[in-house]
């Protein structure tokens, strides 16, 4: 895939009209690492921005929802949840081929893997604990208080999500994965009763989607809100917990590392940091972590499918395809299968 699949001249015309009086020129460079919605540094003269768009080609219904990303970040802009300042959403696909939005570019750092080898040892634990505290701040926001009462269906979240991701897995043209089949069956028989908990759920809350302060060990912005909805807070906490139950070669996990030696927090400390900032104590269980593993595995199945079709946003999509089997296996381990 080329750096862009759209006309830079047309985008320049749009920016000239949008930011009247600012002369440009346009400088655009693709941000690597994303596997879903293509994202670019977009500088228009002195204005430093990020442009995020849908990928080209045929998309599944409801997928790559940049409009939902924009809406939830706009709603959270006046809350304790750190999000980038937003500038404009454009629904007209005639500009660059798909809907897109613009947000201010914040100066910060993005890290992967969770072991944080490029970070000073004394900053590693505070960074991951800041991530947990940030998640608790998100779950403390009452959806209706920020205009998101209709952002998803309240109640029966895990039942609906299990059905959704099972359908996505079934629709994949890839060969079935035996461990993923076993994990799906276990989740269906272990599904907990709905407890009525509803929060704004990020849906992809992991270290790679956190923008950190340029020098301090704290989160300054949460990115990648494509999968956000109204959901159960333990879905996010389970997803964020996966790093402690997966290996370093499995998307940068921590399993098998000497955490104390590396200055990294135990999983119990991560959950305790969440609880310290939460409006109510967490009720995290093996179901929540195994469900997160199932969901992540299905996401990787989708990445593999898009790589095979030539429409994946990330250049390393094909290399990530084996992660589906890896997370299915880890999910089975969490479930005791």
What CATH calls the topology of the largest domain is Aminoglycoside 3'-phosphotransferase, Chain: A, domain 2
Instruction: Report the helical percentage.
Output: 40-55%
CATH superfamily of the largest domain: Aminoglycoside phosphotransferase (APH), C-terminal lobe
Strand order, largest beta sheet: 1-2-3-5-4
Count of individual domains:
2
Helix/strand-derived class? alpha+beta
What's the end-to-end separation, in Å?
A: 40 Å
Multimerization status: single chain
* Number of helical regions: 11
Total count of strands: 9
Q: Examine the secondary-structure arrangement and name the CATH architecture of the largest domain.
A: Alpha-Beta Complex
Account of the protein in words:
The protein has 337 residues and is α+β, with helices and mostly antiparallel strands. The chain has 2 domains: 8-104, Phosphorylase Kinase, domain 1 (2-Layer Sandwich), CATH 3.30.200; 121-335, Aminoglycoside phosphotransferase (APH), C-terminal lobe (Aminoglycoside 3'-phosphotransferase, Chain: A, domain 2, Alpha-Beta Complex), CATH 3.90.1200.10. Helix content is 40%, strand content 12%. It has 11 helices and 9 strands. The chain has helices at 8-18, 66-76, 121-140, 157-171, 178-190, 233-241, 259-262, 267-277, 286-309, 317-320, 323-335; strands at residues 26-30, 39-44, 47-53, 86-90, 100-104, 199-201, 210-212, 219-222, 229-231. The protein has a 5-stranded antiparallel β-sheet, with helices on both faces. It has a two-stranded antiparallel sheet with strand order 6-9. The protein has a two-stranded antiparallel ribbon with strand order 7-8. A hairpin with an 8-residue loop joins strand 1 and strand 2 (39-44). Helix 9 runs antiparallel to helix 11. The longest helix has 24 residues, at 286-309. The protein is globular, with a radius of gyration of 20 Å. The termini are far apart.
